[in-house]
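Q: what sequence does this backbone want?
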């Protein structure tokens, strides 16, 4: 009688290790990864071109569909892009006998980086993305951005720059455009010409003249139009916590303007007349803030802060003498 060999747990483990080391697997080797066609850009791809907004790029966008290196004809392709009103010619189609599909891309209305893509349903590598740089079109307009409506002290620079923006027909800023600045009312100084920057904006520094009154500065772009900025120059009184600086002001010219300017740190102040002028600036407020009043008669005008002063020169108060 043949002896019975018993397979102990240790022997079973060793046998399993031997089978594994020799590449054995009761389930067989893993299946190979699935194959199939793939899509990618085809040279020359048409990627990274530069053009004008709402204008077709010079070179077409191009993709190729291959399966194991072999061209795949008749594969559907759809073209699309981001932004406002991009277009493609054709917008959809099929790969040709060489597995290639092309389209002409008209850039969107927005300047900057534009993106398009080729969608090939069910094909690895889809969508294929393309980029381009869209530059603004020709300048068609100029508009005021900021700086109008401010007031400041005679002989001093204005707090804010005067800013205009030069744009194309789609609102994109256009750089390199000359803007001419002229004082058309009042007394001030401005640069003669500045140029729009990459954002399409041009700036000018205003320095108030030595006489008070309204000022108009006009910014002009040849062939596009003009933009007026309205400012006021006046004798300056600074409103700080607990005081007006100067607290006394002598004016020798009728119809002069006085400008009260709250510092950014000023808290809860206003201008209140002892009698009838200057008119009340409003409720107490925090800085920064500006109040303007024109004095049209010769007299002494006392004023105070309703919170921190009082009539008759109490606390935070001041006096303007128009001689």
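A:
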């Amino acid at each position: 009688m043949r002896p019975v060999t018993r397979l102990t747990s240790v022997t079973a483990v060793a046998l399993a290790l031997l089978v594994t080391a020799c590449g054995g697997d009761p389930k067989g080797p893993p299946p190979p990864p699935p194959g199939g066609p793939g899509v990618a850009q085809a040279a020359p791809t048409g990627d990274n071109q530069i053009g004008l907004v709402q204008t077709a790029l010079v070179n077409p966008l191009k993709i190729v569909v291959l399966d194991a290196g072999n061209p795949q004809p008749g594969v559907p392709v759809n073209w699309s892009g981001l932004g406002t009103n991009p277009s493609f010619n054709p917008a959809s189609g099929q790969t040709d006998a060489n597995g290639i599909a092309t389209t002409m891309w008209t850039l969107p209305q927005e300047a900057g980086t534009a993106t398009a893509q080729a969608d090939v349903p069910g094909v690895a590598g889809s969508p294929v993305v393309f980029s381009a740089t869209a530059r603004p079109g020709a300048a068609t307009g100029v508009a005021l951005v900021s700086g109008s409506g401010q007031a400041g002290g005679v002989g001093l620079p204005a707090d804010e720059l005067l800013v205009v923006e030069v744009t194309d027909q789609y609102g994109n800023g256009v750089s390199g455009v000359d803007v001419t600045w002229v004082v058309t009312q009042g007394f001030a100084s401005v640069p003669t010409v500045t140029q729009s920057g990459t954002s399409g904006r041009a700036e000018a520094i205003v320095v108030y003249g030595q006489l008070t009154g309204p000022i108009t500065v006009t910014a002009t772009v040849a062939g596009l139009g003009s933009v007026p900025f309205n400012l006021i120059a006046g004798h300056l009184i600074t409103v700080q916590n607990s005081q007006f600086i100067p607290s006394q002001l002598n004016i020798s010219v009728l119809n002069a303007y006085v400008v009260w300017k709250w510092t950014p740190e000023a808290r809860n102040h206003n201008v209140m007349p002892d009698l009838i002028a200057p008119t009340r600036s409003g409720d107490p407020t925090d800085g920064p803030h500006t109040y303007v009043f024109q004095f049209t008669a010769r007299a002494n005008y006392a004023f105070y802060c309703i919170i921190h002063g009082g009539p008759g020169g109490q606390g935070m108060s001041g006096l303007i003498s128009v001689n």
